[in-house]
Amino acid sequence: MFLKFICCDVFTRIACDLVAKSPNIIDLEFVPMLAHVEPDNLRMLIEEKISNTTNNQTGRRYDAIILGFGLCGNAIIGLSSPIPMIIPRAHDCCTIFMGSKERFMQEFNNSFSARWSTTGYFERTGARMSDYSYSDQMENYKTSREYMSYLEKYDEETAEYLWETLHPKIESHESIYINIDGYEYSDSYEKYKAAMERLGVELRTVEGSISLLKALVDGDWDEDRFLTVDPGKKVAGIYDLNYVIEAV
Fold it and tell me: What angle do CA 16, 21, 23 make, to 5 degrees?
């Protein structure tokens, strides 16, 4: 297959390696990770890249677009494409780094609000996110465009639930570092460990996996792990722990 891979640059090391080894022919394009701080802006960036992909003047005709994103604060809600689009069923990149929803639940079941990091995450945020403080933007969430969009669709109680689910306050005294075997080239672990020590936070290391990203680039798109959005459909949220998103 000839695929276009639009991917968050938090996965740069892994994505480049997997694309090089994939049986498919893949054009890879990244979106800056910190764009996720403003989900509406991230959505516009992804939409622009989808449009450029399907309206390009190069004569290339892709079989599908694959997205290296999770729900990401509703950033992918409403996305559509004139060619099939495949998306991991994940709330955010943490599940993707863990390799499956099951592994995510196993390690984060009692600590959904725990701080966490990986080489890719720390490299792409650096000192700007090293203290993982809860920002003023989060405290004033009721004036945000994202929260207002929930109120347009749901009642206030549901809007509050969605916000709290997608933006949990950091209440855990534990931090989790997801080790991705074979991709720990930098000193991110040591720097992240030092940052957590300054905060007085206990650090726990768990083993991540590239299996979900590998299946995405290799075309192994089973319904349990991936959503296929056919032309004429768009992405909608389910907000559960199994399917996460649907095509409507």
Answer: 125
